[in-house]
Design brief:
Length: 148
């Protein structure tokens, strides 16, 4: 789908972002519920090395997300028709959000395997980062003009 209407484009990005955040929050809620109920055995075995890997993912993947997002936005051809610009912005947003989401899910899985609370805390911080990266009208205007 290539929107030709800027309002529809903003709406579609907002829906996409909202669905992604909601899915992450729901998965986090399910993991938290399972942990609190003790229905799934967590923390079986020594998996302490995973906390370092989770921390690395929580730092490196969002950093990579921001760098790649900015590169993709700045590479958009100035003066291109709106459908071409909107496709480029959408692709950059999807890549950006997916990298943050992957670090979030990775830390939730580490928490599921090890019951290490810092991994759950990192996942929560990453969810907040993902929420803060929501598309606003002002941001979309900047993105469409090649500034990020």
């Amino acid at each position: 789908m290539t929107p030709t209407d800027p309002i529809e484009f903003r709406r579609s990005l907002t829906i996409l972002h909202g669905a992604l955040c909601l899915g992450c929050a729901m998965f986090m809620g399910v993991v938290t519920f399972l942990w609190s109920e003790g229905t799934v055995p967590m923390g079986q075995g020594d998996l302490s090395v995973l906390s370092n890997v989770g921390l690395a993912a929580a730092v490196l993947l969002p950093t990579l997300a921001i760098v790649l997002f900015r590169q993709r936005i700045r590479a958009l051809p100035l003066g291109a028709p709106f459908p071409e610009l909107s496709n480029g912005v959408r692709a950059a947003c999807i890549l950006h959000w997916a990298l943050i989401e992957s670090a979030l899910f990775f830390n939730l899985v580490i928490f599921m395997l090890s019951a290490m609370l810092p991994a759950a805390g990192l996942a929560l911080v990453l969810l907040l980062l993902l929420i803060l990266r929501a598309p606003s009208e002002k941001r979309i205007q900047r993105w469409l003009t090649g500034t990020a």
